Amino acid sequence: MLDCLEGPPAILSFLCQNYGLHNVPIGTAGNYDAVPFNVSVFYLDMHRYSRTVSRYDKQVSTSIFQVGAAKLLQIVLDQEKINELKAVIENLETQ
């Protein structure tokens, strides 16, 4: 996954040390069964797969989550409020 990220080296290092991002494989599409069993979290297409093994009966369960659109650091501007504040500033400057 590290190959898909860009950022300052200090941030990338932090993510690798604390979250192991350099150990998470990503595929564009493919066969779920082709992924080695010792890989517990991986991405195929637009889904995150997470495999866990029961401590009691050794059954394998797989959770599949759809990966959504990137929304990090997304800023939503209230254009109406901006226009209102510009009008207030303009009125104050003309007085």
TrEMBL record:
Superkingdom as given in the UniProt entry: Eukaryota
Keyword line: Coiled coil
Example of a GO biological process term: double-strand break repair via homologous recombination
Molecular function per GO: single-stranded DNA binding
The UniProt record lists the keyword Disulfide bond: no
One cellular-component annotation, GO: nucleus
Name of the featured protein: Structural maintenance of chromosomes protein 5
Biological source species: Portunus trituberculatus (Swimming crab)
